[in-house]
Amino acid sequence: MIHIGKIIETELHRQERPVTWFANKLYCDRTNVYSIFKRKSIDTELLLRISQILNHDFFSYYISELDSTDL
Question: In terms of domain of life, where is this protein from (predicted)?
Answer without folding.
Answer: Bacteria
